[in-house]
Amino acid sequence: MADTDDTSAARVKARLPRGFADRGPAEIAATERMLAAIRDTFELYGFEAVETPFVEYTEALGKFLPDQDRPNEGVFSFQDDDDQWLSLRYDLTAPLARSVAERFDSLPKPYRSYRCGWVFRNEKPGPGRFRQFMQFDADTVGAPSVAADAEAAMLMADTLEKVGIPRGQYVVKVNNRKVLDGVLEAIGLAGDENAGKRLIVLRAIDKLDKVGPEGVRDLLGPGRMDPSGDFTKGAGLSADAIARVLAFTDAKRDDAAGTLSALAEVVGGSARGVEGVSELDQISVLIRAGGYDDGRVVIDPSVVRGLEYYTGPVYEAELTFEVKDEDGKPVRFGSVAGGGRYDGLVARFRGEPVPATGFSIGVSRLLAALTVLGKIEDKAGLGPVVVLVMDRDQIAHYQGLVAQLRRAGIRSELYLGGAGMKPQMKYADRRGSNCVVIQGSNEREKGAVQVKDLVLGAKLSGAPDRETYLAMQAEAQFEVPEAELVEAVRKVLARHAG
């Protein structure tokens, strides 16, 4: 009869859920450095921090309202003990709208805030597409003037430069939803009866960067067959209507004045379209006054992402430098941040118009861009000073040495494993330590410790002659009284501070 291993049978398989990722110390350290730079820039503009919970009532999120017994389209949802549906937030904007609406009367208005945190999407994961990712948002609520939109665009530019994207390797593009609304009015798609057709047109334009102008032309007309053989039904617009929509997306000229003139022509006599062009003109004046009209912030109708969601100006930060794909072909990194005016979101809770505008930075994407540019160090930072344990019965004494270092503000740890000296040295090396503290019985009887510089010790083999070797060896490991431990460790750490 075969033996059975109950322990093996009960063992849980260690596996990571699809679309999620573990993060190591190097990535966490790099992310924290980048987030600190973003935070500094946001606060320079007068924005203040606020934090909302991961979980909201599903109905408060708005975008993914449940239409079945279980709301599982796009969000992770569950029911609490009183049968209320709750969901993990899918962005940071909807929770902000709920928070502002709840505290509306007590908040200063305009209310300028920033938030950073994880968001969750219950979508099919893929390369570079995760179900959990981090965003960093800045929003102004209660400011109807497009000056708030212009400031957001300028803040985008300053933030990218603060984190290390050089000027000339990014551009912030500004467009306006109202201009497109004017184009739709001009081609006869105004009114509630055309809402469905307008949505098809918006979605077709939103695919401009994926399928190109000809692909959008097909989607605006009879439809498009993609390479996989799937057919997408088109909007069925006339040739003239298609030409006008494409003229909108292609209205970019060499300067803001030329672009605005082209947009004014494409919206025809639409009052809403004229209003949108006027708002872009105002933003252009503010951008020029701030000194950002040097190519950092431009009026560009090619920004079409999110036009279904936003109500006015939209803006997007795009990286313009090229990287190589897996096949060695040059590709652009693309957008790392985007946003716009969403005057209807807070109104869902208040029942009255509340102007709001803001943008979101894709933290992981921006970090990846900085890594490509060589702006991110692939390290977790300086490891702790490790106090080795040579005599197990003296561990309390070693603990006192560690405490002495920590009181002096020196990051340090006591080796808590069960290995001997050589494995302890290897452990310190893997921890990224610059030095270790060694005390055997001989040193302890004298009230002394040995301080070993691991960085200098690793260079001993490269000494050009014996005299240099001996000098380096004396520096690499030396003995000091316990009372001088802190000073000696600081000396080693300072040696490698650069």
From TrEMBL:
Aminoacyl-transfer RNA synthetases class-II family profile domain sequence ranges: 32-384
A single BP term in Gene Ontology: histidyl-tRNA aminoacylation
GO MF terms held by the record: ATP binding; histidine-tRNA ligase activity
Major subcellular location class: cytoplasm
Keywords: Aminoacyl-tRNA synthetase, ATP-binding, Cytoplasm, Ligase, Nucleotide-binding, Protein biosynthesis
UniProt catalytic activity: tRNA(His) + L-histidine + ATP = L-histidyl-tRNA(His) + AMP + diphosphate + H(+)
Family annotation (InterPro entries): aa-tRNA-synth_II (IPR006195), aa-tRNA-synth_II/BPL/LPL (IPR045864), Anticodon-bd (IPR004154), Anticodon-bd_dom_sf (IPR036621), His-tRNA-ligase (IPR015807), HisRS-like_core (IPR041715), HisRS/HisZ (IPR004516), HisRS_anticodon (IPR033656)
Residues the record lists as binding L-histidine: D91, L92, T93, R121, Q135, D139, R305, Y309, Y310
GO cellular component: cytoplasm
Enzyme Commission number(s) of this protein: 6.1.1.21
UniProt cross-references to Pfam families, sorted A to Z: HGTP_anticodon, tRNA-synt_His
Subcellular location as annotated: Cytoplasm
Subunit note: Homodimer.
PANTHER family according to UniProt: HISTIDINE--TRNA LIGASE, HISTIDYL-TRNA SYNTHETASE
The family this protein is said to belong to: Belongs to the class-II aminoacyl-tRNA synthetase family.
HAMAP family attached to this UniProt entry: His_tRNA_synth (MF_00127)
Name the record gives this protein: Histidine--tRNA ligase
Gene name, Swiss-Prot/TrEMBL: hisS
